[in-house]
Amino acid sequence: MKSNKTFYFGLTMLGTIVLAAIFAPLITRFDPIEQDLMTTLSSPNATHWLGTDAFGRDVFSRIIFGARIDLTIGILAVLLPFIVGVTLGLVTGWFGGRFDSFIMRIVDTVIAFPFYVLAIALVFIFGPGVKSMIVAISLVGWVAYCRIVRANVLVAKAQDYVHAATLTGLPTTRILRKHLLPNVISQAIVFSMSDIVLSILAIVSLGYLGLGVAVPTPEWGSMIQEGQPYLLQQWWIATIPGFMVVIVGFSLSLIGDGLVARLER
Amino acid sequence: MSTPLIRVEDLSVEIKTGRGLLKAIRGVSFEVGAGDSIGIVGESGSGKSITLKAILGLLPNNAQVTAGKIFIKGVDASTLNKKARRALISETAGMVFQDAIAALNPVISVGAQIAEVPRFRLGQSKSEARATALKLMQQVGISDGEERFDLYPHQLSGGLRQRIAIAIALSSNPQVLFCDEPTTALDVTIQAQVLRLLLELRRDSGLGLVFVTHDLAVVNEICDSIKVMYAGKFVEIGGVDDTFNRPTHPYTYSLLKAAPDPEAVVSRLFTIGGEAPNLTLPVLGCPFAPRCFTAVAECGTSEPELRAVENSQSACFNSHEHKSWRAAEQKSGAL
Amino acid sequence: MSYFTYVGKRLIQLLPVLFGISVFVFTIVHLIPGEPADVLLGQNATPARVAILNHKLGIDRPIVIQYLNFVWDAMHFSLGTSFYNKESVASLIIARLPATAMLLSGGVILSILIALPLSILAASKRGAWRDQIVRAVPIVGLGMPQVWVGIMLILLFGLKFPLFPVSGFGDTFTQHLRSVFLPSLSIAILLSPILIRSLRASMLEILDSDFILTARAKGISQTRITIVHVLRNAIIASVTVLGVNIAYLVGSTVIVERIFVIPGSGSLMIDAIARRDYPIVQGVTLFFAIVVVAVNLITDLVHAALDPRVALK
């Protein structure tokens, strides 16, 4: 009951932000990139709802256009590792053997690296930018899905319904897809909710470090970095983009918890 | 007659569950005197473990005593504060749990766990407490106590673990041992050893036993009197010989019939047809009526109270007919 | 199995991971588009000079030999020299180590100071309002960006109420301590929700277990039950959770050092990236990975020493 309410609350909050991002040009009449050096660092007022930054750009407009970038990359950077990780988890868990040990050693290696250090090193290799970020986060991210699914497959493998399916002589791919996958994927789906948060956090962090989206493009992380020098007088420039991330993270947490309750039923 | 060690008057316990308030115990009264050996028998969910935990003040957070009184050595427990109550109860009764591996702290050596009460409650020095613990180990039949003292629970066999748990229960010098199915998790031969140990403790030091189980054979083996519990109430109370030979409640009768051989030390868990009632709902009539072979119309409308039948007490409207049950049951073809 | 056998087994398990780490770190340089010589020589790159430099860097040798050389050097703490100022990478990392180490230990200590009492508070009365509040902490906390927490702390305790320095590391030990307080706190604010989530669960499991009932039935005081029976088990749980999250923790120092301008190993890496100083990026990456592996090893060994059950498995 209660988790249902919070689930819809999370969904509503996230939905509002997503809609605002999609219809950003209709909501704000300011171009997020256009500079107006006559009105820099103005306080929130009727025209500029959240004031302007050091280049006179409308902060509100940059935040909702920034949502486009952060949410899109955040979701893309989860999609790829989800598919790769779930597939590898299924295969390694089912077949075991040398391939399994090989993949598990790679998993151990990836886990040994601090996430941000590895992501930063990878972005360094591929050069800063959106594509590098997605690739870097994906290269690290598949590991979690692989482990979750593999662990579930190992448990499911011993269950009678799988034995029964194997005995009927169905092709292995069908057993994996039709019998195993639906039973092992729910935990991965729940994790993907918090993983989206993690990848948005990574994008924001990389953006802050100047390794993410190139500068004039509105992105929450680089907005924080640009706003930091004006923290004492114009605190809203740096803190509100971060607060947006908090809200997105909170909504996804609620959605994730709601999903757990639903899937357990 | 001296004051009983423990006297329970009309005890009721309710448990908050996801599906509502569960009336786990609905008015239970009994006494435990020095040297008594009482068996409380019933299916799981009948409220027997909760009864023990309520007396010892070990109820989980979601459970609450809603009515009744518990007297420990004549003192009303509800008049004591938490600390005084805990002190009084622990010098009166010790508890042995079903699963020793869960009942022992995994990261503290077994010797230290036995020595904890002597050291920290009875104020003994470290070496005194160790000596006390070794003596307790000796008492529960662990001869090489010195060697086992520093071992951890997982390093011991199931039988030894249960002996350690009994030693812990004895460490506060109680006069009664509450045993919550202490042999269910053990192998057949180990079960027999643990039961023998409990019998010896009773014989040698006059230790009282309150033994909760669903194993009738165990009750037959070590108890003098039996209380049969069903749906949070005692439905039959009597001496072990009387009850085993002449059950005066149809539930007891069915239990005994389902048990393969009441003389055997170990028996299978009994099963009888039907299901125990859902105690989150109000109880209308006799809770056993839906499963009873001798139920009459009256059983569906009012709940029978305990009343004397020969040497026993039974909560059944038809208890006076108990001699003809064998025939009645065969005729009805129930079960 | 004795404790020493366990240690041996655990050390052998490390080998494939160390191999994987070394391969990846070695590969970093080879994956980067463009030749190191181009970066080093810039405008002065003539084919002859490139060839000489490549020979000096060892790039003209077979890749396996290069790898073996790299591993051999790394085992002798020789991680090459910085392109930028020709200093030895190893000594640069060591010079930056104290700041990072203080930051990390500060983060861990503050996290435990926040998480342990809160978890005990929550678990000791399941479902009560204080439990509800503590349970909400991870839901909000896990979605907070490190940079945001950092600048909020700067804003509150550095600027509005100037209690702590907001950047730098200071010169004396006391200054160091004051300087790493806010950065450590910002790490702790993000780490403690993770700790609380697992600790609360394991505390509940401990409090629900029969051995606590045994202790209560014995008549032991509540204080002693909490300290001896609950806390010891809970600390074992915290060590494990910390070990699992050490990679996350080390990674966040990179960002925190940047926010608070602390001259640690993480900011060394970020600066090196801006200068395309490969040996430093490579060296710091290797260093951090080794730190994580070492900490994981240590937590496992501590866990095995604290929990008599582990070594037996």
In brief, what are we looking at here?
The complex is a heterotrimer of chains A (265), B (335) and C (313). Chain A contains ten helices and no strands.
Radius of gyration of chain C: 24 Å
Which percent range describes the beta-strand content of chain C?
under 5%
What distance lies between the first and last C-alpha atoms of chain A, to the nearest angstrom?
A: 12 Å
Helix content of chain C: over 70%
Rg result of chain A: 22 Å
Work out the largest interface and the residue count of each chain.
A-C, 49 and 48 residues
User: What overall form of chain C do the CA principal axes indicate?
Assistant: globular
| Main sheet record of chain A | none
Helix/strand class of chain A: mainly alpha
What does the overall shape of chain A look like? elongated
Low-confidence stretches of chain C: none
Subcellular location (chain C): Cell membrane
Transmembrane segments (chain C): 12-32, 101-124, 136-159, 179-196, 230-249, 286-306
Domain ABC transmembrane type-1 (chain C): 97-299
InterPro entries (chain C): BPD_transp_1_N, MetI-like, MetI-like_sf
